[in-house]
Design goal:
Distance between the termini: 15 Å
CATH class: Alpha Beta
Mean pLDDT: 93
Strand content: 15-25%
Structural class: alpha+beta
Low-confidence stretches: none
CATH topology: DHBP synthase
Shape: globular
CATH superfamily: DHBP synthase
CATH architecture: Alpha-Beta Complex
Helix content: 25-40%
Order of helices and strands: HEEHEHHEHHEHEEEHEH
Number of helices: 9
Number of domains: 1
């Protein structure tokens, strides 16, 4: 079963490719469990995906860190141009962006080593007792790793890469934090097509999960 192959890949600290749906963003993301992230993972995502490398967080964990969605932060701020704040995106969902962070031990924050450190250390916080205190003392904002907060109801309320990647880690029994990056196409200057992603997946031995199949699995389980 392809899903079992994907879960095994995540458990080994390897990538899976995740397609949301043709009716949504119509994009494929490279996904890896944050607890296993190394500079090599970041380099591969940068070279083979090329989109925005983000870190997705489980909703309850994000709440424990006292994080809010960026559109909520801006709505509560004194910014005068409230019409600039994104409501629903063209594909129909609210964005999941929160703060962007660097771990305090990074230098510029953007190198493969720096981003790997930021992501790995965030995963480590999941297992400490006073998460908010550790988070506040270990990270600086603004930084070079955007944080994404999955929806409270996960796949029942939003079916984005954020929620799907977190769902995958949960059913794999892993820390529910992921590093995700959209796959781009330098030939068309657009998102990588499903056909090209399938070819890449076969050439590199990476499971490609269709979001519709994942949603069907979630309904049953």
């Amino acid at each position: 079963m392809l899903l079992e192959s994907a879960l095994d890949s995540l458990k080994r600290g390897e990538f899976v490719l995740l397609f949301d749906s043709a009716g949504r963003e119509n994009e494929i993301d490279m996904v890896v469990a944050a607890e296993f992230v190394t500079p090599e993972h970041i380099a591969r995502m940068r070279q083979h995906a090329g989109g925005l490398l983000c870190m997705a967080l489980e909703h309850t964990f994000a709440n424990s860190l006292e994080l809010k969605y960026m559109h909520e932060i801006l709505s509560d701020s004194s910014i005068s141009n409230k019409e600039m704040i994104m409501g629903l995106a063209p594909y129909g969902d609210h964005p999941t962006f929160s703060l962007s962070v660097n771990h305090y031990q990074t230098y510029t924050g953007i190198t493969d080593k720096d981003r790997a450190l930021t992501i790995k250390e965030m995963a480590n916080i999941y297992h400490v007792e006073n998460k908010q205190k550790k988070f506040a003392s270990s990270f600086k904002t603004p930084g070079h790793v955007p944080l994404l907060i999955s929806s409270k109801g996960l796949l029942s309320t939003r079916q984005g890469h954020t929620e799907m990647s977190i769902y995958l880690t949960k059913i794999a029994g892993l820390t529910p934090i992921t590093a995700i990056c959209e796959m781009m196409d330098a030939e068309t200057y657009s998102a990588l097509s499903v056909e090209k992603a399938e070819k890449f997946a076969k050439q590199n031995g990476i499971p490609l999960i269709d979001g519709k199949e994942l949603l069907e699995y979630a309904k049953v389980h």
